[in-house]
Amino acid sequence: MLAGLGMVGLAGNGGVFGCAATGGATDTSATSGGAGAAGGAGGATSGGIDAGGMGAAGGGQAGSGGIIDDCPGPAGVTLAMDELFLGTTDFNGALQTDAWATYGFNLDEMTTTSNLSGHCIPYQGSSATLMADGAQGIDNSFGKNVLPILLPLVPDIQDQANAALQSGQFSLLFHFDALGDEANVDPLKTLLYSGAPLSAPPQWDGKDCWPVADTSLSDPNDVTSANIAFSESVLSGNSWNSNGTATLVLPISILNVQAPLTIYHARMSTVLSSTHQGAALGRIGGVLDTEEFIDVVRNAAATISAPYCGAAFDPTADSIRLASDIMKDGTQDPNSTCDGISVGLGFSLLYARLGPVQMAPPPAMKPCD
Question: What is the C-alpha separation between 96 and 23, in angstroms, rounded?
Answer without folding.
Answer: 50
